[in-house]
């Protein structure tokens, strides 16, 4: 029984470490990527309409070869602290498996230490909030091993806003007005047609009575 118990314990531990592996802590990641984005501080972008240009490159001060495990780069839109207040679903956690700061992917590309650029239209499902851009370098297992971002958390600089789609559009408003006008005209048309039909029926009945 002892060997079997030992085997089960070992299996449990291996499963535990296997499931816990794959996500680290943000505070342990080196900031080795330089990231820039086109929105100016305070600029307001419209979801589904405006574009964001982002670029990233390996920091020139990084020691040669230290990026050998970088395989992929993910660039994301991230909520600024001001848009996380009283919103647990946007909460920042140091444990990356629980962190909800960066929920909107801009682009994912194979890692290249040279300057990389990408242009993207703000996705239609992005809500109204204040954002910054962050890039994660991932290893072959898909774990975050480094990062870079457009803001400094201590100063909250280079933040921009995105205005979500409200669900109303000028073309929809025009169509709605036209449909309403058509409905009113049709209603009056049916009313007068019915009234004329009633008059005709009354006249026919009177003629027959004579």
From TrEMBL:
Gene Ontology cellular component terms for the protein in this record: plasma membrane
**Residue ranges crossing the lipid bilayer per the database entry:** 174-193
* InterPro entries in UniProt: Transptr_NO3_Nar2
Q: Which organism is it from?
A: Momordica charantia (Bitter gourd)
Q: What does this protein do?
A: Involved in nitrate transport.
Domain of life the protein comes from: Eukaryota
Q: Does the keyword Transmembrane apply?
A: yes
Q: What is this protein called?
A: High-affinity nitrate transporter
GO terms of biological process kind? nitrate assimilation; response to nitrate
